[in-house]
Amino acid sequence: xxxxxxxxxxxxxxxxxxxxxxxxxxxxxxxxxxxxxxxxxxxxxxxxxxxxxxxxxxxxxxxxxxxxxxxxxxxxxxxxxxxxxxxxxxxxxxxxxxxxxxxxxxxxxxxxxxxxxxxxxxxxxxxxx
Length: 129
Hints:
Blueprint: E1 16-17, H1 27-32, E2 34-37, E3 41-43, E4 48-54, E5 68-75, E6 78-84, E7 93-98, E8 107-113, E9 117-123, E10 126-128
Parallel strand pairs: 1-9, 3-10
Antiparallel strand pairs: 2-4, 4-7, 5-6, 5-8, 8-9
């Protein structure tokens, strides 16, 4: 039997964090949410741009001791890309061309803060044939 003294709620590096209430974001959520900007509708097999920005709602400090390590994008559970970042970036923001052929589900952006762990934001898009 494993004795777990701590829950994921008590450990910043445990699990994936997501906003509990999008209408009442905490300061920590505002700084770490990887906000997705993408069209609401896209055509299957046609390229579109996805912009992911961490710190869009409230600036995230990016310095050698506290920074965003990387940003990833998924469509449902299908991995699309990952960008590794440096501590010297003033605003963690990436723009990537995406083409959805067989992926299904919402777009999910994840980012990793070296102090505050893994964060996720989801945006539903419609893929038309």
